[in-house]
Write a structure and sequence with these properties.
With 199 residues, the chain is an alpha+beta fold. The protein folds into 3 domains: 2-96, Homing Intron 3 (I-Ppo) Encoded Endonuclease, Chain A (Alpha-Beta Complex), CATH 3.90.75; 103-140, no CATH class; 156-198, no CATH class. 23% of the residues lie in helices and 35% in strands. It has helices at 29-38, 57-62, 91-96, 127-140, 189-198, and strands at 2-10, 17-27, 43-44, 50-52, 55-56, 70-73, 86-89, 103-106, 109-113, 120-124, 156-165, 172-179, 186-187. The strands form 5 sheets. The chain has a 3-stranded antiparallel sheet with strand order 3-4-5. The termini are far apart.
Length: 199
């Protein structure tokens, strides 16, 4: 295993100078000479990868030219480019190894989504309920078995829109209409609230 120092550019154009960034990319011994032949100066990318010119170091090591094939770093260290740590994969397979929780705060609730393909799993009152929904989805692969929170209002958008002219801009805008779940009538915003109080 060898380490390639990464340099950042300071100054403009050809008068700029390369200054050591304090970071190294780790590579196998057999890849070291090939990478130095490609470029003597490798730089740290803003995404955390090592690159030279338009080439990403991990893609050069695996010999990838097809943009549909991605590279996964098993240990999530983007500068660890030894072959044991790199795997050629699809975008979906790469997402499965992402180091994120799969839930987060959304307004006053907790939103959960699949860590594999980003499917929305629902909104939950507590962080524990969102975490449990993710675990249940990963075990079963089904969203419909998750006990989601019941909606707090009966407001549900229907398929019809009303075109309204905006007084300030003079443009036509779509005005969403709603259907009351009790009386099945269609309303706009204020009329809908009146219907809720009367039903």
């Amino acid at each position: 295993m060898k380490q390639i120092p990464l340099y950042k550019r300071e100054g403009n154009g050809r008068w700029g100078t390369d200054i050591f960034s304090g970071r190294y990319a780790t590579v196998d011994d057999e890849d070291y000479d090939m990478l130095i032949e490609i470029s003597r100066v490798w730089r740290p990318h803003s995404d955390g990868y090592a690159y030279a010119k338009t080439l990403l170091m991990h893609r050069v090591i695996l010999g990838l030219t097809d943009s549909k094939i991605h590279t996964d770093h098993k240990d999530h260290d983007r500068l660890n480019n030894i072959k044991e740590n790199l795997v050629a994969c699809s975008q979906a397979e790469n997402n499965r190894n992402l180091p994120f929780k799969g839930y987060g705060k959304y307004k006053d609730k907790w939103r959960a989504w699949s860590r594999y393909d980003g499917k929305h799993l629902g909104l939950f009152e507590t962080e524990a309920a969102a975490r449990q929904a993710i675990q249940q989805f990963e075990l079963t692969g089904q969203r419909n078995v998750i006990a989601r929170d019941k909606p707090t209002t009966l407001k549900s958008p229907c398929c019809s829109y009303k075109m309204v002219r905006d007084g300030k801009t003079g443009r036509n805008i779509k005005y969403q209409r709603y259907r009351c779940e009790k009386c099945k009538k269609h309303f706009g915003g204020k009329n809908y609230e009146n219907c809720l109080s009367m039903c």
